[in-house]
Amino acid sequence: MPIRINLLAESLAAEGLRRRDPAKRAGYIAVLLVCAVLIWSASLQMKLVADNVKLGHLQSSLNSRTNEYAQVMADQAKLAEVNDKLDSLHRLTTTRFLQANLLNALQRTTVEGITLSHLRLDQGFYIVQSGKGHKGSSTEKDLLTIEAKDGSANPGSETITAFKECLTRQAYFQLEHMTTNDIMLKNLSMPQADADTGKPFVMFSFECRFPEKSH
User: Around Cβ 134, how many Cβ atoms within 10 Å?
Assistant: First the structure.
């Protein structure tokens, strides 16, 4: 029987041992793990970049909504201020001092010997602007000055007092809650003689202060 000698057997055996070497296999595994970690890290980095982009869009949208909300709130505040002013103007219009009613009341106020010579009405409106926590308002202050002549049989305080009381009995002045305390005698002249008749008379003036009105 022929004898076969494999001259490469020793080399092949050594190569097989090297392939089965545990240290080499551990190295391969380590390389694979490092590659896996690098791939995983790269995927995380890409995801982080994508999330940052998405966060930037959300932040921009939020800032835009915040600006829109602030503008809406500012517009609402301006609208409320305008409405308050319109309400105040409406109240002033609907509750303003009506001179026709005043003149009609004075026409009905008659005391023998008393003649009206001059009327003056001073109207003042004090405006309080609206602000945080309160609405705008206005306060109306009216002052009526009456100048008259007392040519009665006995001109002086008695007839003038009767005229004052007659004023306060008029329905118009009662609706305005005016009393005799609100009508002040400001001027009273010395007795004079009428140039035509020679009868004595006095000139006097009243200041009628109406109660303040809030609108």
Answer: 10
